[in-house]
Amino acid sequence: TLFEQASDIKQIEKKISKGKKVLSFLENINIPTVAAINGICFGGGLEIALSCHIRVSSDNSLFAFPESNYSLIPGLGGLLKLYGICGVKKTLEIALLGNTFDASTALSNKIIDIIVPKNELIDYSVDYLKKLTANRDLEVINSIVVSLNNAKRLDIETAMKEETKLFCKLAYIEAKKKDVK
User: Fold this and answer.
1) For residue 8, what pLDDT is reported?
2) Alpha carbon distance 174, 160 (integer Å)
3) Catalytic residue from among 13, 27, 47, 163
4) Are 121 and 140 in contact (CB under 8 A)?
């Protein structure tokens, strides 16, 4: 178990770092990602969901960061992501109380974006992604997601400069397409 391995701090740091790399990849991939949440979404599962751009939940889902009940904290960046979504007060309540909450509470705290009936979850999630990306060049999709990711991790001035570069690149590509025709 994790507690048995915890006596070797370097080993546990290595495992946590690997987990953070996976979630960082998910969060920074240049295509929209959707977490389709059905049922229990606790701890690491919630951290995975928070790494996605959009979170769709079935109406029967339950959420929690119960780690404080075991003298731990979420270790894969979940606290930082939750703070970015719902602020200090709500993050403290969720993390320190470790209580379970339902999908409607998650929605009201902006932890999820939509609730759908359990039997519609996958179809809705796939259809939503199709709707977002239909008839869009991959380069445009990538540029939009990169720009949004830059807004989260760069200062506003640098993010705006990067957005300008993305715009100019797309305009150049589009102009070249018209020259060919």
Assistant:
1) 84
2) 21
3) 47
4) no
d(CA 4, CA 161): 48
CA distance 170 to 168: 5
68 Cβ contact partners less than 8 Å away, ≥ 6 residues apart: 95, 96, 97, 98
Q: Has 67 been annotated as catalytic?
A: yes
List 4, 67, 93, 163, catalytic entry: 67
Task: Please give the distance of CA 115 from its chain centroid, rounded to a whole number.
Answer: 16
Reply yes or no on whether 162 is catalytic: no
Kindly report, residue by residue over 59-118, the tens digit of the pLDDT.
999 999 999 999 999 999 999 999 999 999 999 999 999 999 999 999 999 999 999 999
Q: Is 115 helix (H, G, I), strand (E, B) or coil?
A: strand
Dist CA 149 CA 79 (whole Å): 18
**Amino acid occupying residue 137:** D
- Is 0.70 surpassed by the pTM of this model? yes
Q: At 181, is the pLDDT very low, low, confident or very high (cuts 50, 70, 90)?
A: low
Predicted confidence (pLDDT) at residue 176 exceeds the cutoff of 90: no
Dihedral sign computed on CA atoms, order 118, 52, 43, 86: negative
